[in-house]
Predict the 3D structure of the following.
Amino acid sequence: MCAIKIPESHPRYESLKTRNKLVLGVKKGIVCLEGLIAHGRGEAYDYLLGEKTTEFAKDAEYAASALLLVSKNPVISVNGNVSALVPKEISALSEIIRCPVEVNLFNRTVKREKLIEKIFSGSNIERKKEERIPFLESKRAFVSKRLFVSDTVLVPLEDGDRTEALRKMGKNVISIDLNPLSRTSQTATVSIVDNITRAVPNLISFSNEMKNYKAEDLMEIFGNFDNKENLRKTINLIKEKI
Ligand code: PTJ
């Protein structure tokens, strides 16, 4: 469903369709206004990356899928933008990985949190926020017991503070953020520099491919991935493009 009708022949059809999903998300009370600004920032980086999944993003998505599958207690954390853009895909990924989804909002209101939880009501969703991430001031510090004890957290469109705090707790953090220079990308264990609209479908397809792999093979795939080097190559790609 779109706020306005966009002809499929439009050269920027995908981008305009994505914007419309966010505008509709605002109208429904799922996306906060700041989410539109955050998306604009993402779009600028996407433009520099050629609006497609780079080979480096694909490598990160492959390693992230292996890490999610080999983790004992993974959790997917979602916010307003993620819930408006890829709700079905997040539910599908959580089923393949067999992990819960948790709503975690930066601009948190109980009303919006409940609205978003409804979107994922058919999934394994963690509602109760009984724990607090240490050394984190924002409302994002309140998490479920499940996330508190998790070994790996997938955090699309996260803020750098929480990524750092989760890393300090000893967790693996998989980020999805189009900005390779953001604190989130710079501190995550696996940094996926790709649009969430492409990254989550790729995670689904890689996880499906690997779901019957042995733990040692998954560990090997994850172990062979060098996140710092991958980020360096992505930043170089942007430099070349400019
Ligand atoms: O729903 P809430 O209240 O939790 O708020 C969500 C936002 C996104 C507003 C909040 O988390 C926020 O302010 O995020 P930041 O700090 O602006 O960071 C968002 C990051 O996501 C930026 O680095 C953007 O480049 C990136 N980004 C934006 N859109 C996309 C994206 N990355 C991947 N895919 C996108 N579509």
About this structure: The longest strand covers residues 74-78. Residues 13-28 form the longest helix (16 residues). The mean pLDDT is 94.
